[in-house]
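Researcher: Go.
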Amino acid sequence: MSYFARISKAVPSFTTTIKWIVICLCIGILSGSASAFFLVSLSWVTHFRESHLWIIGLLPIGGLLIGLVYHYYGKEVVKGNNQIIANYYNPTQIIPLKMAPLIFVSTLITHLFGGSAGREGTAVQMGGAIADQFTTLFKLKPTERKTLLILGISAGFASVFGTPLAGAIFAIEVLYFGKINPKSILPAFFVAFIADTVVNLWKVNHTPYAIPIVPEVSTFNLLLVIAIGVLFGLAALLFSSSTRFWSTTFAKYIHYPPLRPFIGGMVISVSLYFIGTTKYIGLGIPTILDAFDSPSESYDFILKILFTAFTVGAGFKGGEVTPLFFIGATLGSALSLFIPLPVALLAGLGFVAVFAGATHTPIACTIMGMELFGIQSGVYIGITCFTAYFCSGINGIYNTQMVYGPKYKLYRKFLGKKPTDI
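Model: Structure:
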């Protein structure tokens, strides 16, 4: 094949380009609108819960409802994000559209009654389910369907956090070892910006964060952020391991799935009654914001790990990313009592680094940190994210995610173990 023939083959035709522009516009508009409605709804149920704390006593009933709905009507979508990732690696049947409304409603129930969960899982599942419907509509090939799933993840992540660059890179990086088609990269960025723009057009605001003081880059400061990066990686490892532990424990001892969130809800509601605070349930945004202003309590991140891992392991729905933000921000903030760096910088580093470790996406998290906090702290963010990534083990929060590359080789070389053994 001649050089010009290869070039012409690599460049998509006019009709193909128009097709993917239309697909991106549709996915971006639909996913962005779904995320906007979800964010508004989530804010409402959170305020209602905090104004009517008695409702936390009904968490077991909410858990039972979620369990029953998924057991009898949603078995084929119960795996959530892991199902989307698995379908990328091994495309099978189209993801049912009902994944979107089921995860939407169940996440709101989780937050309304006092579970500790996030929101990225909901947005990604809505985006993935919406995107996959275009496989049939446009009669796409299996390879093209993979691009659709990337677009769904990108649109959902970008729209729920207001970080279009990180959203696109996250969708690519989390699936990287599943052989990303280079033709998927540009549409991933395009759809992310569309989805984020749609959320803004709906006038839904994202939480602002800031790192007002960034010290000069020095050898001493770089050594400090490497050291705390190790701690953030271990925190990510602890969270992932805790989630797997509780999920396995519930499945082992409670054979009827709807009873798992029911019993888990009872334990959480009773625990909240005795500790006398709602600080560790829901998204925890107020606590995250406080972590940027003053040192957090040394036990905040541990309790958030416990409540979130238990909530998700019991079968409640939502996501893990915002709780990971909470865990990282409060751990970094608490370290400011011992580490001679600004509290906001340490909180910001933890915010993205624990997330990087738990999802094996250090590049996306570095970009996200710069989108949220400014490019001035980029060097510190990048070093901390990659350090946490290498120190967080092989098994993250997505059980079906492939993890190879330098991290995989490092663990195999020094531990002599396969990913499933670590």
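Model: The two ends are 46 Å apart (CA to CA).
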